[in-house]
Amino acid sequence: MSIAGALQIGRSALAASQAAMQVAGNNMANAATVGFHRRTIHLAAAGDEIIGRNAFVGQGVQLQSIRREVDTALQSRLRDAISQESTSLVDQRFLTTIETLQNELTDQDLSSSLSEFFNAFSELANNPEDHAIRSLVVQEGLTLANKISSLRESYSGVIKQIDRELGASVTEVNDILDRISLLNTQITQTEQGVGEAAALRDQRDLLINQLSEQLDISVIEQGNGAIDIFVNSVPIVFGGSSRGVELRTESVNGQIEVSIRVKDDGTLLNVNSGRIGGLMRQREDSVQPAIDDLDLLASELIYQINRTHSQGQGKFGFDSVTGSYGVDDVTAALNSTNAGLDFDTDNGSFFIHVTNKESGIRTTYQINVDGSTDSLNDLINEINVTVGVPNVTASVGVANTLSLAANSGYEISFSDDTSGALASLGINTFFDGADAGTIKINSVVENDPNFVAVGAGHIAGSNDTALALAGLEDDQQTNLSNKSIRQFWQDSVTQLAVKTSAANSAVSSSNLVRGSLDAQVQASSGVSLDEEAINLLTYQRQFQAAARFIAVIDETLQTLLSII
């Protein structure tokens, strides 16, 4: 072995140990840096040199590579866990919000208001002539309508909150995608297919983890070091190009629907988890169904109460009465979409009673109506011409409503409506509106509780209508899946409670999974200060030994020179 070869061995040892100490020092410096992956140095013996027959000697050490310690499979599982945890947290937050808004199991909930409303009719049935109880019925109706409309408004507020958060999340996602695509370009330019630009890759991995909080993604690394990112096989990043995402809002059948799409071409993204996935799921599977259930409950409550109430009689008849529901087209069949009524009319009839106030003589007239063929004009013609009800004039009122007016000295009342026309047109009704957002008390009974229908058959002191109205609380309704109004609401509340409980369990489970995977990633890629201290000591000794070796070679060289 030559003197030059020996010096080369020492030099390589010095360079390798110095590089190793730098790696250990860098690891120790970044022990608390978020997203940092531990670097490891990999050394290899240099090739042998022939110094004699069958005699080979090494030429020192060479630096083979410096690697980031990354388990890609574990990293992928962690990203999935991050997405699931974000989803479960969103689920828990909004389900708890809805449960809080419902405020069940208190004296201020909707169930209590329903009970108090129907109980007021029961009490009125026991005292049909008591004006104070009539006023109580109206007040309980106002309270119930306000409770329903207030809850509906709160639900709508939750929808708006979700939409705002979706918009903010989409903005954040686009920012992350732009930064990832920029890092892709920097990494490919820096590495050029050789080695790893570790700091740039750490930055990119940290951004990918942040992205997985928003979306469920899959990542594929290309040979040049760039990555492509997909959402359910739809690419959103191609190398150095971000395709972006957007929140699209559309009005469908009067409801606002939102979707997540690729900004470049509008491709629909089916986001199943992450914050965005959780927000979309809560919007579509929790909040909107809660609104739909409340609207259905309110609609059925309005119609069933009105249909029963419209056939009863209050303390007085009407000098004139105008319906609270107008049609869009007076010539269109009542049940057609062109008419625009919220409630259908069956093929049936109702009775108009005309009473002479002075003599008390009452005459009765049957009005036939078929909602599938008859228009508002046809119904008015039936009353005025076909039947020709004397001392009563039917006409089209304000906003295309049905208006009935009695001649002076006469009053009008109604009964036995098998068609539901009176309820669908808002004649002699208790409620107004069509759903939870529009429900309110009919202004006629609100202004004068004497028009609250209590009796039937024009019998003084009758309580038949009040009893029928009270019984609606527990009567099964076809439109409510053969459940009563009370049962339908209680089942809706119970289903939400079950979902909330499941969401709470999912949060606990996802936290455990995320924590476990975090620990595994730290074990694989995290920095152990104790381990790095041992490595540093080892590389220090190696450096010292190499320096001593070079000193010995130098002394040998000096000895040779002195001989010469």
Question: Secondary-structure map with pairings?
Answer:
Layout: H1 3-29, E1 39-45, E2 48-52, E3 55-58, E4 61-68, H2 72-102, H3 110-126, H4 131-191, H5 198-214, E5 218-221, E6 227-231, E7 234-238, E8 241-242, E9 245-252, E10 255-262, H6 274-309, E11 320-322, E12 347-356, E13 362-370, H7 376-386, E14 392-396, E15 402-406, E16 410-415, H8 421-425, E17 431-432, E18 440-441, H9 443-447, H10 464-471, H11 485-525, H12 529-563
Helix pairs in contact: 1-12, 2-4, 2-5, 2-6, 2-11, 3-4, 3-10, 4-5, 4-6, 6-11
If you had to describe this structure to a student in words, what would you say it looks like?
- The protein has 564 residues and is α+β, with helices and mostly antiparallel strands.
- It has three domains: 103 residues; 320 residues, no CATH class; 109 residues, Immunoglobulin-like (Sandwich), CATH 2.60.40.
- Helix content is 52%, strand content 17%.
- The chain has twelve helices and 18 strands.
- The strands form seven sheets. The chain has a four-stranded antiparallel β-sheet with strand order 5-6-7-8, covered by helices on one side. The protein has a three-stranded antiparallel β-sheet with strand order 11-15-14.
- The longest helix is centred in the first third of the chain and has 61 residues.
- It is rod-shaped.
- The two termini are 20 Å apart.
